[in-house]
Design brief:
Number of helices: 6
Largest sheet: none
Number of domains: 1
Structural class: mainly alpha
Strand content: under 5%
Order of helices and strands: HHHHHH
Helix content: over 70%
Radius of gyration: 24 Å
Oligomer: single chain
Low-confidence stretches: 118-125
Length: 198
């Protein structure tokens, strides 16, 4: 029996090149999905901050839950995964409920402060906007990390994700603070320069 070494080597190289090409494509797809999911999280951080401006107590919290549910569904769709609204809302309740009591009290107090005419209605939205955006960042990050792990979404353990959520929530607060301070600097530069002369 006669073996052609060149043909065998060529076939091995072709197989290796195909495998490398598949790995590059899967790596590009993974990065593309991650980027898209992160853009979704950023978009919904803005929407979440906007719920803080709703002037009615409790309505703002309900609106935030709706926004976050929609965000999670969009992230899941990027990864061709689905989860029922009931499971998503249950996950939101557990994750947000895992925040320190003083933080939860601050969110509730901020919402109820809107009942105070004048000052409460002016200041409460400012404090709630940042907290709402940070919780959305935390929720989105938890789901994104699980989807990136390759595990089926049905296997997500919300209980074991609490610590990851709290870290992401703190990271979200830092992001909001950085954006806020950058905007304040820009505004102060504009006010120092004075109005533009036509």
């Amino acid at each position: 029996m006669f073996f052609n070494k060149d043909k065998i080597m060529t076939k091995e190289v072709e197989i290796e090149m195909e495998a490398t090409s598949e790995n590059v494509e899967s790596g590009e797809l993974k990065q593309s999905r991650r980027d898209e999911a992160q853009q979704i999280i950023s978009k919904y951080m803005g929407w979440s901050a906007g719920t803080g401006a709703i002037p009615f107590p409790i309505a703002d919290v309900l609106a935030l839950a709706t926004v976050q549910t929609k965000m999670v569904k969009e992230i899941l769709s990027v990864y061709d995964a689905t989860l029922s609204d009931v499971r998503i809302k249950s996950a939101l309740t557990v994750l947000i409920g895992s925040l320190p009591p003083q933080m939860l009290a601050g969110i509730v107090a901020g919402s109820l402060a809107k009942l105070i005419p004048g000052v409460g209605q002016a200041l409460a939205p400012l404090s709630l906007a940042g907290l709402s955006a940070a919780t959305s960042y935390g929720v989105g990050t938890v789901f994104l990390k699980h989807l990136e792990s390759g595990e089926p979404i049905e296997d997500i353990s919300i209980e074991s994700s609490k610590e990851s959520f709290r870290k992401a929530f703190d990271e979200g607060k830092k992001k909001i603070k950085a954006v806020t301070s950058r905007k304040k600097k820009e505004e102060s530069i504009i006010s120092e320069e004075g109005p533009a002369i036509a």
